[in-house]
Amino acid sequence: MSKILVIADQKDNKIKKSTFEVLSEAKKLADASGSSLEAVILGEAIAQEAKVLAHYGVSKIYTVENSMFKNYLNRPFIDGLKKVIDASSPKLVMVPTSESVKDYLPGLVGATNACGIMDCSAVSLDGGKVQIERPLMAAKAVSKMESSDDLVILSIRSGSFDAVEADTSLSCDIESVDLGTVDIKAVFKELISAQSDRVSLDDANVVIACGRGVKDKSGFELVEKLADVFGAAVGSTRALVENGIAEPSLQVGQTGKVVSPDLYIAVGISGAVQHTAGMSNSKVIVAINKDEEAPIFSLSDYGLVGDLFDIVPKLTEAVKELKAN
Amino acid sequence: MKFFVCCKQVPDVAMAFQIKDGELQKDDLNYVLNAYDASAVEESLVIKDAVSELDLSLVLMGAEKGKEALRKGLAMGANDAFHIEDDAFEGSDSHAAANVLEAFFKDKEYDAILCGKQSQDMDMGLTGGLLAEKLNIPYVTNAVGLEVNEEAKSILVTRQGDAGQEKVELSFPCIVSCSNDMNEPRIPSLRGIMQSKKKPMNKVSVADLGLATDAVGKSGSKSTLLSMDFPKARKAGEKFEGEASELVSTLIDKLTNEAKVL
């Protein structure tokens, strides 16, 4: 019998939605294979939040608390997680993908001499083998891969699995692991963050994304207004980031974030594969575009052919009215 | 200063491709220099223009035709290239690639190794960080900006992180993996193309690196690619045309009563 370890991802000491998706799937895999499930969370002040992990059927939680996690650098994560992996000795490690995870995971895979596979969308266990599916070729193809290595570390693409309901009656042992001294050959200098009160793309149930069609800052602001009435996150294509209309952290696509909200509204987005690679897993997709031949319509559940400058303000008013009632 | 850029030749993912019996049909593919690697080359050349002396070498592991990708980098302005070519590489994963690059770099002098943040065909993004761990040097991924401090022997990397752009300073030697959001790679000039033909293209084999053939290719890999397929296509749904306020009421109705997301 083996063990599965889930690495929780958190922001501002709050566990992200993507972690519960991965935990739910890991629990299923553990139950089906007679394995045990453990979890680890690292952060500045996460002892309280860590308890939430138990609600998903975890039998043991490791916490690594240290002020070094305040500003992101990869080394403290690599060293802290290596300690936990040595203590837990899992066969399989699963972690939801984020920009930080994409950064520290290659180092962790090297440090633990594991087999690493990034951005998986399906996982199964077959005896001693781990089998996965993952997109490749700009998400125009899907591959099946397997590894029979003693330790396999997988990052999981957001939206690949559904989170189950938390069972708040559950609890388990929590072990605090000391990070110790870390030999960091890097210095964190500065965080340039786009200050926004809006929900982040990672956690949003609704994403309103825009592309070249919005033309300029005033078109972008129309989309922001629509996002605000929905309580949604704003997303963007690479083109709008490049010409300075949208913040780089809003970019959705192959280079950028992969999102899978319940509702994705694509405003003035033609639907190039570099963009759709980051959103095609959304549950419901709406496209607003004046070009009826735009490729985005081929993956949209509802397509509105028309001028976004007419439609978006009217949609904003309609949603505002709906939410008010 | 001495920089290396690790390059990969990849199929042009913008083009259509065929998959037959679970395998990518390689004959009809058009191969190009990985776009993220091209950004790493471009950024090195920007530094080369700004800094007095920068010697820029390229390294690529892969098939014979990989030299076309190296030629492109040389035509852009790199000084020389190393082509690690061996039949034993067939079926390599990131781990096997990192083994080869580790063997290549272990007796080399360098200040920084740049690479693309991932390859456009596999989209894995492991090799740079794995290599850094093997060489025991610091690394940062997903760089969107670089500033070299020659005197301090360090590099200030701006990376796109989760909460915004993070500025991290790394001491030499180090590895930086680059995003294509960093720059727009230059198109080689005719003069550059002519000059590239005279620039050194050094051939390296697995034996030259002192590697056993079972440390590379399939036997040096920790994962196996079993098969490929096209993803289940999303079906196109309904498309509506008409006056804006009608379109909006139709959409609100659909989202509320059919999709039930409002």
Describe the secondary structure blueprint for this structure.
The complex is a heterodimer of chains A (325) and B (262).
Chain A: E1 3-7, E2 10-11, E3 14-15, H1 17-33, E4 36-43, H2 47-50, E5 60-65, H3 74-88, E6 92-96, H4 99-111, E7 115-120, E8 122-126, E9 129-136, E10 141-147, E11 152-156, E12 173-176, E13 186-192, E14 206-210, H5 217-230, E15 233-236, H6 238-242, E16 263-267, H7 273-276, E17 284-289, E18 302-305, H8 308-324
Parallel strand pairs in A: 1-4, 1-6, 4-5, 5-12, 6-11, 7-11, 14-15, 14-16, 16-17, 17-18
Antiparallel strand pairs in A: 2-3, 8-9, 9-10
Chain B: E1 2-7, E2 9-11, E3 19-20, E4 23-24, E5 31-33, H1 35-50, E6 55-61, H2 67-76, E7 80-84, H3 94-105, E8 112-116, H4 127-135, E9 139-149, E10 154-160, E11 165-171, E12 174-178, H5 190-196, E13 201-204, E14 224-229, E15 238-241, H6 244-258
Parallel strand pairs in B: 1-6, 1-8, 6-7, 7-13, 8-12, 9-12
Antiparallel strand pairs in B: 2-5, 3-4, 9-10, 10-11
What would your notes on this structure say?
The complex is a heterodimer of chains A (325) and B (262). Chain A has helices at 17-33, 47-50, 74-88, 99-111, 217-230, 238-242, 273-276, 308-324, and strands spanning 3-7, 10-11, 14-15, 36-43, 60-65, 92-96, 115-120, 122-126, 129-136, 141-147, 152-156, 173-176, 186-192, 206-210, 233-236, 263-267, 284-289, 302-305. Chain A is α/β, with parallel strands linked by helices and 325 residues long. Chain A folds into 2 domains: 3-176, HUPs (Rossmann fold, 3-Layer(aba) Sandwich), CATH 3.40.50.620; 206-324, TPP-binding domain (Rossmann fold). In chain A, strand 9 (129-136) and strand 10 form a beta hairpin. The longest helix of chain A is centred in the N-terminal third of the chain and has 17 residues, at 17-33. By secondary structure, chain B is α/β, with parallel strands linked by helices. Chain B has a single domain, classed as Rossmann fold (3-Layer(aba) Sandwich), CATH 3.40.50.620. Chain B has a 9-stranded mixed beta sheet with strand order 11-10-9-12-8-1-6-7-13, sandwiched between helices. Chain B has a two-stranded antiparallel ribbon with strand order 2-5. In chain B, a hairpin with a 2-residue loop joins strand 3 and strand 4 (23-24). Chain B starts with a strand and ends with a helix. The chains are: A alpha/beta (325), B alpha/beta (262). At the A-B interface, helix 3, helix 4, strand 7, strand 9 and strand 10 of A face helix 3, helix 4, strand 9, strand 10 and strand 11 of B. Strand 13 (186-192) of chain A pairs antiparallel with strand 11 of chain B, so a sheet runs across the interface.
